[in-house]
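Page 47, continued from p. 46.
Same chain as before, 188 aa.
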Amino acid sequence: MKRLSLAVLLLALVPANQLIAQEHEHAEAGEHEHMQSSDAAVKSIAPLHDMVKGYLIASAEQMPEDLYGYKPNDEVRSFGQIIGHVANALYMFCNSATGEGSSPGENFEERTTKAGLVEAINMGFDACDAAYTMGDMKAMEDMEFFGNPTTRLGVLTFNIAHNWEHYGNLVVYFRANGIVPPSSQGGM
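Result:
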């Protein structure tokens, strides 16, 4: 499922990448002053970022505090640790993609209270949101991430896939405790 989700995200980017390449060709030919960037690539993935952001924040807010320590077995993170992990990762992904920002200064996965973890996930998304407004010319810049060549857009796409992966974990935790997860509640 994870590979399928990533493949769908990447397929959505193909037309945007073609537009960017055409714009780059025009810019090299001196025609840039007559063209406006469509910024289609980043705009095409921003709604996916916003959607999973809503589900993750709602998850943090809706899970009862007494279940923040719940985990289906000893080999996996607890509900609260997943929220903290995602908060940490938001800083890492988005600061890498933009080349700006700072680390949170703490490991959010070590927070244990619901209030502290709800604050952490909100802080992580606040720090990350600006990355999804960058222009496509910057988004298509080459970079290295986890030792692999990619683009800034590739890192932002990876961030979305990572967030969905962990939201999927949380859905299982909700269901195992007889709670309907945010994405199944409707209205979001």
